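User: Let's play a game. I give you a shape written as tokens, and you guess the letters that built it. Ready? Here's round one.
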């Protein structure tokens, strides 16, 4: 949970990290790799408490699912660099070359039903049309017409966006979710939209108990009802307008 002096910082950058804290965490991550003479791509994870103290959690000796976020804000292809290192080549960049540009967010699009305790949702993807556009990236693992079985990881894709700041990234991600068309199965897209719209998330005032504290299926059901009513209202106005235009006067 991020509070206090971070409030003035989150709108532009991280919901939690000041530049000083980010630098300290980065240095700690480098020390973790050096302590075991690690060579290659790796991801060091930390937990942060209410006072912004950070604690080592684990290191994964690979790229994480969220690596596109780093690529979007640095312009560095981490997969390419990982392969080059594995081939015995030197990195083409130095630490001081890395700069953060803007803000990026990613959600995992899962074949799970947020209205049924996030249980797996299987079936045929009768419609599967990811959003496209500037500052949108979708890493797909599936295509329209394919079946989603129960035997594998339920992640369909990774939806990543970039914005000039955190607020812009949130808005871009909301638009991308609304333009992501999936039919035939249930997905976690509605839950992602719920999180992005929640004040606690937007303000960065949340912790690992976010779901248990704020989420209920009724909230998403109610939002579906509001969206459906809004869509029906727009459709009715369009119908009445077209009816008026097409009205043929009597002789």
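Assistant: Ready! My guess for every position:
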């Amino acid at each position: 949970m991020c509070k206090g002096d971070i409030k003035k910082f989150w709108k532009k950058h991280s919901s939690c990290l000041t530049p000083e804290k980010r630098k300290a965490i980065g240095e700690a991550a480098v020390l973790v790799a050096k302590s075991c003479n690690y060579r290659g791509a790796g991801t060091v994870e930390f937990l942060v408490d209410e006072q912004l103290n950070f604690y080592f959690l684990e290191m994964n000796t690979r790229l994480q699912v969220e690596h596109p976020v780093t690529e979007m804000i640095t312009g560095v292809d981490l997969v390419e660099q990982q392969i080059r290192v594995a081939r015995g080549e030197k990195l083409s960049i130095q630490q001081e070359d890395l700069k953060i540009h803007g803000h990026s967010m990613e959600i995992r699009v899962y074949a799970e039903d947020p209205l049924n305790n996030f249980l797996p949702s299987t079936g045929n993807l009768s419609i599967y049309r990811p959003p496209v556009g500037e500052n949108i990236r979708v890493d797909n693992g599936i295509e329209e017409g394919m079946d989603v079985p129960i035997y594998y990881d339920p992640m369909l894709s990774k939806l990543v966006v970039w914005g000039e700041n955190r607020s812009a990234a949130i808005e871009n991600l909301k638009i991308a979710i609304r333009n992501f068309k999936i039919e035939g199965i249930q997905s976690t897209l509605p839950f992602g939209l719920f999180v992005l719209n929640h004040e606690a998330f937007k303000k960065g005032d949340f912790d690992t108990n976010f779901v248990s504290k704020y989420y209920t299926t009724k909230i998403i059901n109610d939002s579906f009802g509001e969206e459906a009513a809004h869509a029906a209202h727009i459709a009715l106005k369009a119908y009445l307008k077209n009816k008026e235009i097409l009205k043929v006067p009597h002789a």
